[in-house]
Amino acid sequence: MSHLLRHALPIWMRLRIAITDLALRLGALSTMAYLAALSFIGVDVMIALISFSAVWPAALPPIVIALAAAAGIRSWWRRRRATTDRETGNS
Q1: CA geometry: angle 80, 32, 28, nearest 5 deg
Q2: Whole-prediction pTM value?
């Protein structure tokens, strides 16, 4: 986008363009985040988030990335607990 055109746009439009550009640059990461979030939160909630994003599109990527991170932490915690339980003999 040209420099003059960029400054002619309202701030909310420039912000939206920047967010879209970032989302496109992180396309592969976003795809993995969507899949991880889908497996973590289920289809119903994911459809609700996508519906919400139609009203406010900039809200979906941060929510999905946060949920994917939570899924990763949850998975790591379960593996850690299973390893600890095996080592201590707890069931």
Answers
A1: 135
A2: 0.31
* CA gap 81, 87 in Å, rounded: 10
- Give yes or no for a contact between 40 and 50, defined as CB atoms under 8 angstroms apart: no
Q: Of the candidates 41, 27, 28, which has an alpha carbon nearest to the alpha carbon of residue 69?
A: 41
Q: What angle do CA 71, 75, 80 make, to 5 degrees?
A: 145
pLDDT digits (tens, 9 = 90+) for 1-42: 455 555 666 777 777 767 666 666 666 555 666 666 566 656
Instruction: Give me the torsion for CA of 34, 37, 43, 45, rounded to 10°.
Output: -110
